[in-house]
Recover the amino acids of this structure.
């Protein structure tokens, strides 16, 4: 153990003495994040939102729900929202395809509950793959809820009359007469909004529990979303560089010299894997700190994130330990390592939003550490414990370690 | 102290060590001479524990060298490669490599400083090694092998590619180490180095020791004869054929190659006879040297090759 720690300490000291490669690998993701942020962040002069596609599911099919539909039909609203009336299944299907930002579900007996002054709930299902548009829909529905609640409370007597009318056949309801009346009331009610308490209509916002990464890209901050992907990509590069020491030392005779000392092969292998892990984790946390300082990126619970970072670094060290045992020399390691890292990053979501990827890419992505780390970071940002990413990275890391240790031990026999 | 018995090692069909046997006493400095491919590095690698798959036995301090892990800390190795970290200072390297042996930190620092002074690196001990010259790196490489005061020191061509000053410093160090009681095995291509440094010289080729002893003992193998080196434009076979009937008690053909041949003669009066034979056969001679017997002559006689072959 003493010798293992000695080798580990020496490795850390060596890399700190010539830190150029590590510093470059830390700087690149920061620069790339900044550039992408500059290119893709919304600009004030281009702040017009695209039409927001909303699927409206009407289980009520009565007066109040039609009023809501009418509100969506107003010219100003039509510029902002593109509403399709359909059922919930169709709405979710469209959301899966990225064709809907939100589903608004009007419950059964919505009109009757309103007119009876009973609390009722409108559900807004938000597309988790989108950052801002579902929130606009939620806000719009909040306003509508205020207006309708206000109208019903302010015109309680009329509402009772209308309620009585509703017992009559639907065909006999004078819709044209009711519309202008409520329209005039709207302006008054907006002005007295703060006095309308309690609201009769509540808004329940939900996020669709879609398969795959849709549940995981929920953070609004562009930098916060991009940085984990960049960080894991460059962590792979850094740890690969660190683990290549084994190959260099085999080539230049240092490994042979070490094996003439009382140092055991297992101690050397352990030191190298632990070194890759510890240095990878430290570098990742430096990136986190820089991300917070420079981009004000949000990472969520730091304890959870630290666990995730430790699991990712462990996986990376084990993988490149095994990789180093398989390649013949440093040149081969360099030639094969870079394409592997780029493939991990491409399929795993470090280079593009996983939602924008073809299905085949997404399927391959689950085999990469990038994907699990990015998913885990998204969960941590949402305040959740990243159980699945942690479990996958740790268990597969243990498997890789089990493969790497004997392979590296054989490599020490020169 | 060290007893090697019937050590054999093959690389496929090539026999690198052929039932190699050797004894070494405390404080003895053995120079192992041999042409390329003689098996010197294979022997050092097996003794250092970095090469397996061999037969035979090695006893060190009365114990099996390969079965007793503790013996590794009694062994010092100076490899042919510059095996240290160039980004670290000489002192950091010494502390790391020395730390791999069972040595106390305080004792190690003291010993490292002493050794670095001894090899002339004390003043630059804190500089990164990458700024050192080739000779300084060689001296550091040697010093690292001595940190833990080994009982047996193995040096594989420790003076390759360095300036005279560094070479002298390393050879002095080897002599001092031997005088202090450490047994040393030191491989080289340089005859002059073993002549001045070693208490015993072994000449090996094809994985075996051909002859061993002190310099005087080895020179007596050739006898009191002059060595005639002839250079010219001739084929080896033609040269051998031309001098064939002259060879015997007074003339011995030591080696014959294309354009270069060596003969040992009891009397310089034999030289005109040799020349006459060559002229008759129309073999062109461009130069000729007459040398007194030396280690080089012995080497030539035993291996039929020069050290640089």
């Amino acid at each position: 153990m003493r010798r293992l720690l000695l080798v580990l300490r020496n490795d850390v000291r060596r890399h700190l003495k010539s830190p150029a490669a590590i510093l470059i690998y830390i700087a690149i993701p920061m620069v790339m994040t900044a550039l992408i942020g500059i290119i893709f962040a919304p600009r004030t002069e281009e702040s017009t939102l695209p039409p927001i596609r909303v699927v409206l599911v009407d289980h009520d099919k009565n007066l109040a729900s039609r009023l809501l539909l009418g509100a969506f039909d107003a010219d100003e609203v039509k510029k902002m929202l593109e509403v399709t009336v359909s059922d919930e299944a169709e709405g979710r299907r469209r959301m899966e395809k990225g064709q809907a930002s939100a589903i608004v579900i009007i419950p059964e007996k919505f009109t009757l509950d309103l007119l009876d002054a009973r609390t009722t709930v409108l559900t807004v299902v938000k597309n988790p793959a989108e950052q801002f548009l579902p929130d606009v829909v939620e806000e719009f529905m909040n306003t509508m809820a205020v207006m309708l609640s206000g109208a019903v409370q302010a015109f309680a007597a009329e509402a009772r009359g209308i309620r009585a009318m509703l017992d009559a056949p639907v065909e006999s309801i004078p819709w044209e007469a009711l519309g202008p009346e409520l329209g005039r009331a709207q302006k008054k009610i907006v002005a007295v909004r703060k006095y309308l308490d309690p609201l009769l209509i509540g808004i329940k916002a939900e996020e669709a529990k879609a398969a795959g990464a849709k549940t995981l890209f929920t953070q609004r901050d562009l930098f916060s979303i991009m940085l984990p992907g960049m960080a894991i990509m460059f962590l792979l590069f850094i740890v690969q560089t660190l683990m290549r020491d084994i190959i260099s030392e085999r080539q230049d005779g240092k490994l042979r010299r070490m094996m003439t000392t009382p140092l055991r092969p297992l101690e050397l292998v352990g030191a190298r894997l632990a070194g890759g892990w510890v240095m990878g984790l430290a570098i990742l946390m430096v990136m986190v700190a820089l991300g917070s300082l420079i981009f004000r990126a949000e990472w969520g619970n730091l304890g959870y994130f630290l666990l995730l970072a430790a699991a990712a670094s462990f996986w990376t060290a084990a993988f490149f330990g095994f990789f180093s045992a398989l390649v013949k020399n440093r040149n081969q390691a360099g030639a094969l390592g870079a394409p592997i890292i780029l493939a991990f990053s491409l399929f795993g979501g470090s280079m593009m939003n996983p939602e924008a990827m073809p299905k085949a890419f997404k399927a391959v992505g689950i085999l990469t550490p990038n994907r699990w780390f990015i998913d885990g970071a998204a969960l941590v940002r949402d305040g959740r414990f990243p159980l699945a990413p942690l479990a996958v990275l740790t268990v597969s890391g243990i498997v890789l370690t089990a493969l790497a240790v004997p392979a590296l031990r054989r490599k020490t026999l020169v | 102290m060290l007893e090697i018995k019937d050590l054999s090692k093959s690389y496929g069909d090539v026999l690198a060590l052929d039932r190699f046997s050797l004894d070494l006493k405390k404080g003895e400095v053995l120079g192992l001479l041999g042409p390329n491919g003689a098996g010197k590095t294979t022997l050092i690698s097996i003794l250092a524990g970095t090469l397996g798959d061999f037969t035979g036995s090695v006893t060190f301090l009365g114990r099996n060298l390969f079965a007793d892990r503790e013996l590794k800390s009694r062994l010092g190795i100076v490899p042919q490669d510059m095996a240290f970290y160039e980004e670290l200072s000489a002192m950091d390297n010494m502390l790391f490599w020395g730390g791999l042996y069972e040595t106390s930190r305080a004792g190690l620092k003291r010993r490292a400083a002493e050794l670095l002074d001894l090899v002339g690196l004390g003043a630059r001990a804190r500089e990164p090694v990458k700024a050192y010259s080739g000779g300084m790196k060689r001296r550091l490489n040697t010093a690292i092998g001595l940190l833990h005061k080994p009982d047996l020191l193995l040096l594989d061509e420790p003076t390759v590619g360095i300036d005279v000053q560094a070479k002298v410093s390393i050879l002095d160090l080897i002599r001092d180490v031997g005088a202090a009681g450490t047994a040393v095995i030191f491989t080289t291509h340089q005859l002059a180095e073993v002549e001045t440094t070693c208490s015993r010289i072994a000449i090996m080729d094809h994985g075996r020791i051909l002859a061993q002893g002190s310099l005087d003992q080895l020179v007596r193998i050739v006898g009191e004869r002059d060595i005639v080196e002839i250079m010219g434009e001739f084929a080896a076979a033609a040269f051998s054929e031309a001098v064939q009937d002259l060879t015997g008690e007074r003339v011995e053909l030591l080696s014959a190659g294309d354009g270069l041949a060596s003969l040992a003669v009891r009397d310089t009066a034999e030289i005109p006879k040799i020349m006459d034979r060559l002229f008759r056969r129309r073999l062109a001679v461009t130069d000729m040297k007459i040398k007194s017997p030396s280690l080089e002559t012995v080497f030539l006689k035993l291996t039929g090759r020069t050290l640089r072959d």
The two ends of chain A are 23 Å apart (CA to CA). The interface with chain B takes residues 3, 6, 10, 13-14, 17-18, 252-254, 256-263, 413-414 of chain A (CB under 8 Å).
